[in-house]
Amino acid sequence: MLDRPNPAAAQREAFRADVIEGLSRPTRTLPSRWLYDDRGSELFEAITRLPEYYPTRTETSILMEQAEAMAAFCGPRVTLIEYGAGASLKTEILIAALAEPAVYAPVDIAGDFLLAAAARVESRFPWLEIRPVVADFTADFELPRGLPALNRRVGFFPGSTIGNLTPHEAVAFLDRMRGHVDGTDAGEAGRAIVGVDLVKDLETLLAAYDDAAGVTAAFNLNLLARVVRELGAEADLDGFAHEARWNAAESAVEMHLVATSAQEIRLDGEIFRFRAGETIHTESSRKHTVEGFGRLAAAAGWDLGEVWTDADEAFAVAGLV
Ligand code: AVJ
Q1: Residues in domain Histidine-specific methyltransferase SAM-dependent (predicted)?
Q2: Considering 6, 130, 142, 226, which has the largest number of Cβ atoms within 10 A of its Cβ?
């Protein structure tokens, strides 16, 4: 029999390598992308509906109010390239306002998820040409040849996912996106629409990542549960607690798993020891100012063309030109 690549096994080994590497560091870290297994994705969906978690509902209301302006910003005959196709509800608000014809190219690493999202969008917008792209948008990737260019390409990156990237990674991402959208047959320069969560009072920020119902805690602890469930590690899940912290130097809300007493995690013959109070850093969610985001965009060759915000300026949707 031929050797076939086994994506599930490859994923598990990548997860194992990240866990061993991350727990071996002096500051223990687990990459936030492992938060999103099926259970984690479900918990994140629940987070977006929490009273304390303002970003999703604020961004959605900005899109609803500004859909016409954003569609005008895209222009006629647009190819909309969405990075990470998990946000189809928000995408549908924008697509509904676009002029016909248009092309929608959702990019996502999870093929099943991508095709399900594409099918949903297709049933609602039969006039739309849909070209799903299976790729890891956090890595360097090329758009497939033959993706229609029509008049203009617009990169769409909602959800404030840009906040999970370091400034260096954010500039690299924005630069790569510019490469994807520039240079169509019609010669129009590309554009982008990016959701950015803004700096605000600490009470609001921390509550958004430490809700009263404990959903964010369950989301964070699920990562350690995965280490036990999928990698066969031994750990006391009750010995770790969720914590949201503000890192002023990085302008980021961080999620940590704090050892509430001395703890050990055993994995593959290694023992990772924690003193009481030691933590595993699981996510950074950077908060920007409009000016600060403008500087990141400028470093990637973009200008801030439009900035759409809510009345409280809690969240911004930036139109890059
Ligand atoms: C999906 C990355 C935008 O950082 O706000 C929500 C993830 N983590 N609560 C965010 C998250 C904890 C979310 N992003």
Answers
A1: 15-318
A2: 226
Name the pLDDT band for 184 (thresholds 50, 70, 90): low
pLDDT at 265 over 80: yes
Q: How confident is the model at residue 108 (pLDDT cuts 50, 70, 90)?
A: confident
* Band of pLDDT at residue 185, cut at 50, 70 and 90: low
Q: Whose CA is nearest to atom 5 of ligand 1?
A: 285
Tokens of 161: 């996912």
Binding pocket residue ranges, ligand 1, CB within 6 Å: 47, 55, 159-161, 163-164, 209, 216, 283, 285
What are residue 44's phi and psi, to 5 degrees? -65, -40
Partners of 319 in the β-ladder: 193, 306
ipTM metric: 0.98
Mean pLDDT in residue range 255-268: 98
Residue type, 90: K
Q: pLDDT tens, 72-98? A: 999 999 999 999 876 578 999 999 999
Q: Which pLDDT belongs to residue 86? A: 62
What is the pTM for the complete model shown?
A: 0.94
How far apart are the CA of 120 and the centre of ligand 1, in A? Answer: 24
The DSSP output letter for 288 is B
Give the integer Cα–Cα distance in Å for 147 and 36.
29
pLDDT higher than 60, residue 284: yes
| Residue whose CA lies nearest to ligand 1 atom number 14 | 161
Distance of CA 32 from the midpoint of ligand 1 (Å): 9
Classify burial at 168, counting beta carbons within 10 Å of its beta carbon; exposed 0-12, middle 13-18, buried 19 or more.
Answer: exposed
Q: Pick from 173, 247, 285 the residue to mutate for probing ligand 1's pocket: most ligand atoms within 8 Å of its CB.
A: 285
Measured in angstroms, how far is the CA atom of residue 284 from the centroid of ligand 1? 9
Q: Which residue has the tokens 């895209």?
A: 74
**Cis, bond preceding 101 (omega within 30 deg of 0):** yes
Among 6, 22, 30, 17, residue whose Cα is nearest residue 222 = 30
- Residue 14 is inside which H or E element, if any? helix 7-24
